[in-house]
Amino acid sequence: MKIYFDNAASTPVHPEVRDVMMESLNEDIGNPSSIHDHGRKGKAKIEQARKLVAQHFQASLGEIFFTSGGTESNNMALKCAVRDLGVNHIITLPIEHHCILHSIERIQKHNPDVDCTFLNIDLEGKIDKNELEQHLKTLADQKVLVSIMHANNEIGTIQDMENIAKICDNYDAYLHSDTVQTVAHHPVDVSKTKIHFLSGSAHKFHGPKGVGFIYMNQDAIIEPFIDGGAQERNMRAGTENITGIVGMAKALELAEERATEDHEHLLQLKTRLKEGLSQFDERIQFNGPSDPSEVLSTLLNVQFPPHPKSDMFLMYMDLKGISISGGSACSSGANQGSHVIKAIRGDHEGMAVRFSFSRYNTIQEVDQVLDAIKEILG
Ligand code: PLP
What we know:
Layout: E1 3-4, H1 15-27, H2 37-57, E2 64-67, H3 70-85, E3 89-92, H4 98-110, E4 115-118, H5 129-138, E5 144-147, H6 161-170, E6 174-178, E7 197-201, E8 212-216, H7 231-234, H8 242-257, H9 259-280, E9 285-287, E10 299-304, H10 313-319, E11 322-323, H11 339-345, E12 351-356, H12 363-377
Parallel strand pairs: 1-11, 3-4, 3-5, 5-6, 6-7
Antiparallel strand pairs: 2-8, 7-8, 9-10, 10-12
Helix pairs in contact: 1-8, 2-8, 3-4, 5-6, 9-12
Bound molecules: pyridoxal-5'-phosphate (PLP).
């Protein structure tokens, strides 16, 4: 038995994505920057992909730039906003992904004048928008970048970006949102929501690893993060990962086609696991919002009560062929010490485990996972 319930870390590539990537590997032998036929054909595919990504956000073509993934896009937005837009204060959340938190640490190391404010979050991981507004009021004479993730990758909390954007706009603050976990599931409409930077990563929606994008609003023009050739309209140098870009666009297209169907399926899986766990042990709690509209349907973060096997739980599950995680993949599989769980629960008892699903998971798998949990913890 092999069950993969760690889709918030990475998802399997859709077979049709693999097919277009194989085709690209065979066909796209030229460099997309070359002006000959082989180059031009590749370039045309990249521009077709850009169109698809732009449409997903109601953005214009010139606002989408391909990168190596979410980490690069987030680094680029934060570091370039400080370097090129004169940002001297960053407002963010303590539950952001490490690529945001560590970027801010690096920024402050090299620019001691840049301040950072961490907003409070409640037990469900939500912010208090009044608190954001108060900070922006106080910082009226500063150039502020607000960086708030659209959805948290460990507990799934979805933030209300529409109203956050309105507040930031009222105070002329730049807004960046890490949308890595919501692209293809809960798209942001940038024609209605004024956001300056968004980031996405193909491997979270059944595309390949190592490719992503950044959306950059025309009002927030930064200079390149990576210098070199004139690729990506001089914004991101380096020969384009054409095979990855083509695969990402196909994955996005397929996700859009099946969005409603997938959402319902994911909710069924999640509800089955939640109910099964509650029946097994009423002391089990769930981290993240209880309102389904405020949390990702792709994941369930479970707070198990203290148990002698807690420390080895992920390993026992792994031995049974079940892949789950204790938080983000970057926490090296440890089920203790998640900065997100610490931020919502403080020094807590028991263990937090993230189960995350994709369209390829089944109800039968949920039942098998429940049986395994009962065997280990029963
Ligand atoms: N941001 C969030 C919320 C994530 O979940 C991840 C991946 O785990 C990243 C950023 C990093 O993306 P990538 O793996 O494409 O570098």
